[in-house]
Amino acid sequence: MLILAIESSCDDTAAAVLRDNTTLLANVISSQFDVHAQYGGIVPELASRCHIEAIWPVVNEALVSAGITLDDIDLITATQGPGLVGSLLVGFTFAKAMALVNNIPCTGVDHMAGHLLAIGLEDRVPDFPYTALVVSGGTTSIFSVTDNTTFTLQGRTRDDAAGEAFDKVAKLLDLGYPGGPVVSQRAEKGDPAAFAFPRAWLDKESLDFSFSGLKTSVVNQVNRFRQKNELVPVEDICASFQQAVIEVLVVKTLLSAKKSQHTRVVAGGGVAANDALRQHLSEQCRQQGLECFLPSHVFCTDNAAMIGLAGYYQFQSGHTVSPDADAYSRSPLN
Ligand code: KG4
């Protein structure tokens, strides 16, 4: 079965072609980075307009690079939610229209399911069950994954997502957008123990997260330097902030695995591309006798390949969408 997958939940227009759940034939991503960078964050209306301009060229490029035409496609799948509704509507409506006109079945995928299954695009794929941390610009959640369509929420952020915290700290320090990659780059040269930023463990045994207190603490620390007209030690601030985020993410993910009696741990989402997080999670898993599975960077950040995989499993389990199905901004999984 040949699958055309489309992702447009935020600021990347992406299309992929897969053969079943086994072979990725094309994976195209068009980023709107330059459009939003000047505003220091995503402007939803601009994002929708950029998706409209990019959708057909991106889909066409995916088909051409896979060496096929639309006539060869057996299933079209697109992200249905969560995300920016104006952005989602472009990809999802495009997918439904293509499917309707060409008489091809169509599935609507939850973006979160894509991140939870993205590890399936790698050569080394975990058996079920596994504990998965999904950590991105809009989500910080832990799930128990028992098969390709069953995801049970174990914990989630009560305020900011970890990626959002990275982006806000980058904005505070005038490092540009998106914040994650640049904060982690600056953190490499800093001392993670320079500042004792708070770790929000919440109630004992809680698997929920909170990053708003950490963010406020970083703001206060930076303001103290600025008020005294002192140079802000950007590298040390980034390293100490990143360390505080990583510690909480790793401890709670491993606690969740322990509670679920899982021996396999998976991570996904844009922040899972953070090398310090990857190293710390791998090392802690090794020390606790758990297997750690991390998707390559391109499958951590938004991509259509993971949507294709999730859409394939959804179709196999008998789910398709009708032309009047709507996009949604909040995930029912979360
Ligand atoms: O999954 P993603 O591409 O989009 C969604 O939010 O769905 O994740 C984007 C988020 C942004 O907040 C970005 O700053 C963060 O992932 N990010 C990182 C890194 N690369 C991307 N955060 C920390 N370290 C990174 N290397």
Outline the structure in words.
This protein has 334 residues and is an alpha/beta fold. It has two domains: 2-116 and 302-316, Nucleotidyltransferase, domain 5; 123-294, ATPase, nucleotide binding domain (Nucleotidyltransferase, domain 5, 2-Layer Sandwich). The protein has helices at residues 33-37, 44-66, 85-102, 111-117, 162-172, 179-187, 212-227, 234-260, 275-287, 297-300, 305-316, and strands at residues 2-7, 12-19, 23-31, 75-81, 106-110, 130-135, 140-147, 150-156, 264-268, 291-293. Strand 6 and strand 7 form a beta hairpin. The longest helix has 27 residues, at 234-260. The chain is globular. The model has no long low-confidence stretch (mean pLDDT 97).
Topology at a glance:
Elements lengths: L1 E6 L4 E8 L3 E9 L1 H5 L6 H23 L8 E7 L3 H18 L3 E5 H7 L12 E6 L4 E8 L2 E7 L5 H11 L6 H9 L24 H16 L6 H27 L3 E5 L6 H13 L3 E3 L3 H4 L4 H12 L18
Parallel strand pairs: 1-4, 4-5, 6-9, 9-10
Antiparallel strand pairs: 1-2, 2-3, 6-7, 7-8
Helix pairs in contact: 2-3, 4-11, 5-6, 5-7, 6-8, 7-8, 8-9
Could you list some keywords that capture this structure?
334 residues, alpha/beta, Nucleotidyltransferase, domain 5, 2 domains, 5-stranded mixed sheet, 11 helices, globular, binds 5'-O-[(R)-(carboxyoxy)(hydroxy)phosphoryl]adenosine
Termini gap: 30 Å
Q: Which spans have pLDDT < 50 for at least 5 consecutive residues?
A: none
CATH domain topology of the largest domain: Nucleotidyltransferase, domain 5
State Rg.
Answer: 20 Å
**Strand line-up in the sheet with most strands:** 3-2-1-4-5
Tell me what portion of residues adopts beta-strand conformation.
Answer: 15-25%
What's the architecture of the largest domain in CATH terms?
A: 2-Layer Sandwich
Sheet having the most strands: 5 strands, mixed
How many helices does DSSP assign?
Answer: 11
User: Which quaternary structure do these chains form?
Assistant: single chain
Mean pLDDT, as a whole number?
97
| Overall strand count | 10
Q: Roughly what percent helix?
A: 40-55%
How many individual domains? Answer: 2
CATH class of the largest domain: Alpha Beta
Assign the structural class, choosing from mainly alpha, mainly beta, alpha/beta, alpha+beta, or little secondary structure. alpha/beta
